[in-house]
Amino acid sequence: MKILITTDVYAPVINGVVTSIMNLKRELEKLGHEVRVLTLSNEIKSYVEKDVTYISSLGVGKIYPGARVTISKKCKYLKELMEWRPDVIHSQCEFSTFRLAKHLAKSLHVPIIHTYHTVYEDYTHYFSPKQSWGKAMVAFFSKKVLKHATTVIAPTEKVSTLLQGYGVKRPIKVIPTGIDLSVYKQGNAMQARKDVRNQLNIPEKNRVLIFVGRLAKEKNLEEVLSNFSRVKLEDMSLLIVGDGPHRQALEEYARKLNIEDNVIFTGMVDPKELPPYYQAADIFVSASNSETQGLTYIEALASGLPALCRKDPCLTNVIEDGTNGGLFETFEEFERHLEKMLCDQEEYRYLSIHAKKKAYENYSSTAFAKSLESVYYDAIELFHPTENVVYVNNSGINQ
């Protein structure tokens, strides 16, 4: 099968969506499929690198930091993709490349599968003076875009419920995003833990809380910093791994709370270098309620870290209170969970074991790719029900 993945962002950009796309591409290729990516160039020039087509674009950072758009639907590189003739298009963004996906799908008469990654309601502060207006705009926009998809993929039940509330009528399938968890299998974990702590000047006796992700307003890291400043436990460090437009404000807030000596901002870390950072920590923390996939939550669980997170529907079936972590809505709940995790060794060991078990049983990138492969075949059959086409791949024969 020939599969075209379209996305507004791709490597060298690093974020959860890009990571999930790269994992999916790799796993689909392992299953014997031919996969290409159509994305936006970060300059006013189109080009192709291996199996990735970059289309010229312009920066529109005033809408959202790092956002880019293209208006071109005619160029030799798009013509080359049409001549390649993909069997299915899997779009990952709702803007410029979705418009290109629609153009290609209509011309080639092939289905569009669309993954709805982002809960835009949580980002209305970037484009709307009133939250209620912003939510209404998001509902209207999402319904209008998704009517062009054959099937919509929702990473969580939260997203599925949200889309149904918007009035989306297309079939919605909930498929949790898969992660390549092999890199999080602990080899020499103790040495990795020691090396990172030495590098960051974290005392050996300190217990370390870690957050990994983009430093943006919607991640609600102020609540993590505030809770950390109020906890009465001694010998603790907070490790914040990542970068983003809100970093300076967070550093200033840490100074305001007089905890700057116990909070380490690492800046951007290459995803390939992340495992030792998780191994250097004891507990993963987050107060975000804007997640649709929570890839870093799964990475942390796979590393054996219990997760202490603000309660949110996106974490249903991911973080189980008292099994692989704890959920909080107030500081008192945060403090109670943290004290129990750090002061009760048997409790911590139980949570750690079940954290790894949950991650490896439910969120592998291989299982994710196979689930989507099935969705692709169903969509192609819907578009071409009378064609007796046989696809051969490593997992067998699909007709």
Describe this structure in words.
The protein has 399 residues and is α/β, with parallel strands linked by helices. The chain folds into two domains: 2-178 and 364-398, Glycogen Phosphorylase B (Rossmann fold); 182-362, Glycogen Phosphorylase B (Rossmann fold), CATH 3.40.50.2000. 39% of the residues lie in helices and 18% in strands. It has 13 helices and 18 strands. It has helices at residues 16-30, 76-84, 96-108, 131-146, 157-166, 189-199, 221-230, 247-256, 275-279, 295-302, 331-343, 345-362, 365-383, and strands at residues 2-6, 34-40, 47-49, 52-55, 58-59, 68-69, 88-91, 112-115, 151-154, 172-174, 207-212, 236-241, 263-267, 283-286, 307-310, 325-328, 391-393, 396-398. The strands form four sheets. It has an eight-stranded mixed sheet with strand order 3-4-2-1-7-8-9-10, sandwiched between helices. Strands 13-12-11-14-15-16 form a six-stranded parallel sheet, with helices on both faces. A hairpin with an 8-residue loop joins strand 5 (58-59) and strand 6 (68-69). Helix 10 (295-302) packs across helix 12. It comes from Oceanobacillus kapialis.
In short:
By secondary structure, the protein is of the alpha/beta class. It has helices at 16-30, 76-84, 96-108, 131-146, 157-166, 189-199, 221-230, 247-256, 275-279, 295-302, 331-343, 345-362, 365-383; strands at 2-6, 34-40, 47-49, 52-55, 58-59, 68-69, 88-91, 112-115, 151-154, 172-174, 207-212, 236-241, 263-267, 283-286, 307-310, 325-328, 391-393, 396-398. The protein has 13 helices and 18 strands.
